[in-house]
Design goal:
seven-stranded mixed beta sheet; about 425 residues; FAD/NAD(P)-binding domain; 8 helices; five-stranded parallel beta sheet; alpha/beta; Immunoglobulin-like
């Protein structure tokens, strides 16, 4: 049995930022458990730039961003165990893990931070007709083949889904000499960042087909083509619009799913919209001493926001370990009328700092206004020229406002056009 103050599950940008923040706040015995062979998570295969603009105020590649944090982890002498799989977390915060060097191990923790990240939604979740021929894969898998392993996955490419990974790979495949014929998006708007649509599609003349999907894949030994179709308001394919497109590579960028098998087996309260745990402003879950941050909590579009949120989890874990937190009554948050979800879902009434509420909208809204209200009383509002589902939004609540809110009340975020 090993005893640690803090166990961080996941050594990506979220886990490293959380561990470093806890260390800075006085927590000494910290260990990061990472299933991959190096720290950094998905950033190591994201060789494009665009990271760090908010946090470091400069443009970095994914490996450069993660390298800055991994060097700090080493400098602060935070212990790490790589190629280590966490199998279970008990109600008493006992972590069971396994690796080749140590075999099966048990670690008793005062606090745990969940930072397992997310995974891509696979083809099996899409019900696309056709045989399971080689050439159909997620955009992230193709990214690893091209950027890490040095293999091209195809010469004629169709991308289904306009998430940021798909948009990035449209540009990457083009730069490597492939012909990216189109990006098809089921919804009437893109799910990616506006800057990625411009830099990855518009700049290279790659068409984005909205309200369009892939209905069938064709081929025997390898993918030979796909049938695409426009969809109606109910997202059902319109038969008269079926069109065959020749290609040898179909990349899927159809959403990310938080990796929460450990969270669910632990029994923490989950949010059905985000797919992650329900947390308070310190990112503590319903399980005392267990915190969550990064894409395991809700899918972020910028790693800079992952870092900032993870520092809140590190601070919260440190306060728990050092017995600095205070029990307080809470209020809950809820999104409605165009706001899909709000994080955090709970706020301590007597919190000692301002609280930033993160939220996503359900569709594209032009010249809309977001209202924050309690008991039908508007306490805050924010107008914006355009709200899109692909970009996470935020609004800050002053601690003075929070302290005046009724205990156990519900704070509602809603949009009005």
């Amino acid at each position: 049995m090993n005893n640690y103050d803090l166990v961080v599950v996941g050594g990506g940008p979220a886990g490293m930022a959380a561990a470093l923040e806890a260390k800075e706040r006085g927590v000494e015995k910290i260990i990061i458990l990472e299933r991959d062979e190096s720290l950094g998570g998905i950033l190591d295969q994201c060789i494009h730039t665009g990271f760090g603009l908010h946090y470091f105020k400069e443009e970095l590649s994914g490996p450069e961003y993660s390298d800055r944090f991994s060097k700090l982890v080493e400098k602060e002498k935070i212990e790490t165990k790589l190629e280590t799989m966490v199998l279970n977390i008990s109600k008493s915060n006992l972590v069971t893990a396994v690796n080749k060097a140590d075999g099966l191990m048990e670690i008793q923790a005062k606090a745990i931070i969940l930072a397992m990240g997310c995974r891509e939604r696979p083809r099996g979740a899409l019900n696309i007709a056709g045989s399971r021929v080689p050439g159909v894969m997620t955009a992230g898998t193709a990214q690893k083949y091209v950027n890490i392993d040095g293999y091209m996955t195809g010469k004629k490419v169709v991308i289904l889904g306009s998430g940021d990974i798909g948009l990035i790979m449209a540009r990457r495949m083009t730069l490597e000499g492939a012909q990216v014929k189109m990006v098809c998006e089921l919804l009437p708007y893109s799910g990616g960042l506006a800057r990625n649509i411009v830099q990855c599609l518009d700049d290279f003349g790659i068409p984005l087909k909205l309200s369009c999907t892939v209905v069938e894949v064709h081929g025997k030994e390898r993918l030979e083509g796909v049938t695409i179709a426009k969809v109606d308001r109910n997202r059902k394919p319109i038969k008269s619009s079926f069109e065959y497109v020749e290609c040898d590579n179909l990349l899927l960028s159809v959403g990310l799913i938080p990796e929460n098998e450990l969270s669910q087996s632990l029994g923490v309260e989950m949010d059905p919209i985000t797919g992650g745990p329900v947390v308070n402003e310190s990112r503590e879950t319903s399980q005392k001493g267990v915190f969550a941050c990064g894409n395991v909590l809700h899918v972020h579009d910028l790693v800079d926001y992952v870092t900032l949120e993870s520092q809140l989890a590190g601070e919260g874990a440190a306060n728990h370990i050092l017995n600095l937190e205070e029990e307080a009554a809470t209020i809950s948050t809820k999104g409605m009328d165009g706001v899909r979800y709000v994080v955090p879902q709970k706020i301590n009434v007597h919190c000692d700092k301002d609280v930033k509420l993160y939220f996503r909208v359900a569709q594209v809204y032009e010249k809309a206004k977001v209202f924050v209200e309690v008991d039908d009383e508007i306490i805050l509002s924010k107008r914006k020229a355009k709200f899109t589902p692909g970009e996470m939004e935020d609004i800050s609540l002053k601690k003075e406002i929070i302290e005046q809110l009724p205990v156990n009340s519900e704070l509602i975020l809603r949009l009005e056009v």
